[in-house]
Amino acid sequence: MSNKDAFFQHIEEGYKTKGDYISMGAAMLNGDPLTNALVKIPLKTLNRHGLIAGATGTGKTKTLQILAENLSEKGIPVLLMDLKGDLSGLAQPGNDNAKIQERHTKIGFPYEAKKFPIDILTLSEQNGVRLRATISEFGPILLSRILDLTDTQQGIVAVLFKYCDDHQLPLLDLKDFKKILQYCTSEGKEEFQEAYGRISTSSTGAILRKIIELEQQGADLFFGEKSFDVEDLTRIDENGKGIINIIRLTDIQDKPKLFSTFMLSLLAEVYATFPEQGDSDRPELVIFIDEAHLIFNEASDALLDQIESIVKLIRSKGIGLYFVTQNPTDVPDAVLSQLGLKIQHALRAFTAKDRKAIKLTAENYPISDFYNTSEVLTSLGIGEALISALDEKGRPTPLAATMLRAPMSRMDILTDTEVKQVISTSKLIPKYNEVVDRESAYELLNKKIEKAQTEEAQQKAKEEQKKTSRTSTRKSSAMNPIIKVLTSATFIRGVMGILSKAMR
Ligand SMILES: Nc1ncnc2c1ncn2[C@@H]1O[C@H](COP(=O)(O)OP(=O)(O)OP(=O)(O)O)[C@@H](O)[C@H]1O
Ligand SMILES: [Mg+2]
């Protein structure tokens, strides 16, 4: 048997699937694709997470597009974080041309131009469905992690949440949180001291400064009502196609803190909301994060821990997470080690550091009798990638340098008119874009302060009249009440917020 025949057989056997799958393209040997040596990803393994990496311009975003449209085609909803704004083209059919025809002839199946149902979501005031979350939903733990608080500061945040919970003070936006933060050391000082121990203004000041930093990245737009119901991410259209939810994040590149805040809250909420899946033959939702280095680069250790644990846990809910980034080393090892599908586009060897990274990347792929992996990594063309997946039994499939299919949808962005068209037909816009201004902690505390001030004035007047003096007989509790609150079982159950399960 020739080497070529042996390779064909190796790929055919290694990528055999019983259930449904996505064809990515054809495996290549010595730089040429073998027609019909198809590289197939079983739907069953798509909740096992993945990575799409490669130098700039090698085709990562198009690979993401290919996966997204094929998932939609199979009725699986998708969520895309579009940081460069280059994914909206999914809503229009692609342009057939001679080059694409040639690519598909080599691969072994014809090119089809198709469009897919999309919804455009936004964190800012751009056109699109507004994505928001309330501070209460966020919970004290996540908020502390995002703000990178010390243990003492975390204790205070936990107490503030508990207080608001006990006193029915909804914490909706940052204005509410700043109000309670200020209240606990001013008008509410005695009340807090009695119940929870003294809270120092230097600690609340430090927390406030961190909140302001977050606000400067535009977080005030993100926190508030109406909060987004993550179940709306799993819609299927009338033709049975999964809806592709595209979050436009073009204005978030220079706001890494806001991006990680949002990402983490979304993942935590998805984790808390979706039911356990057991052994399912397809994912419930697949999430792609383009330019993923942005979440990891600026994340604190606490935040990284949190991301790692969510990545680990979310799989059982049938959610697949796919990171797209230039270099695999952008992704922390603990996350990398959990990824089932790896699609590695070409890497460039300009510097000694590059060569080291290439060697390291090659070592992380299964050994192949047919390839010198480091050589393949530097010689792949645009729209070609090394693929290593998992078969339906969870075993690694053979390493395959793959000529990828072309996206069925447009490889370019939508025009402004087309974007308007998508937005005008969105079913979510009426639900989420109305302005809600419910009475929350800010207003309620202001009322309380006002009431207390009038009562105090009345009381003073009475006392003046009677001209009698009294002394306070309040005693503070012996044990540090903050610790008491933090360890009480009811508190843990009630106030841990959306991450409670993930934390155990
Ligand atoms: N599968 C493919 N089929 C046909 N053409 C492709 C394919 N993948 C990539 N290309 C071509 O390569 C170009 C660059 O691809 P893409 O934008 O996906 O690169 P990228 O790796 O995401 O780049 P960047 O790092 O700049 O974001 C595309 O505009 C397209 O012309
Ligand atoms: Mg890209």
Describe the structure.
This protein is α/β, with parallel strands linked by helices. It has two domains: 3-131 and 228-426, Rossmann fold (3-Layer(aba) Sandwich); 135-223 and 472-503, no CATH class. Helices cover 44% and strands 13% of the residues. The protein contains 21 helices and twelve strands. The protein has a twelve-stranded mixed beta sheet. Strand 1 (21-29) and strand 2 form a beta hairpin. Helix 4 packs antiparallel against helix 5 (151-166) and helix 14 (352-363) packs across helix 15 (373-379). The protein starts with a helix and ends with a helix. The protein binds adenosine-5'-triphosphate and magnesium ion (MG). Adenosine-5'-triphosphate binds at residues 54, 56-62, 382-383, 404, 406, 411. Pfam families: HerA_C. This is Putative ATPase. Residues 455-467 have a biased composition (Basic and acidic residues). Residues 34-472 form the Helicase HerA-like C-terminal domain. InterPro entries: HerA_C, P-loop_NTPase, T4SS_component.
Largest β-sheet summary: 12 strands, mixed
Helix content: 40-55%
**pLDDT < 50 runs, ≥5 residues:** 472-504
Number of domains: 2
Content of β-strand: 5-15%
- The CATH superfamily of the largest domain bears the name P-loop containing nucleotide triphosphate hydrolases
Could you say what the CATH topology of the largest domain is called?
Answer: Rossmann fold
Radius of gyration (CA) equals: 27 Å
Provide the residue-averaged pLDDT. Answer: 88
Q: Could you give the count of β-strands?
A: 12
The secondary structure category is alpha/beta
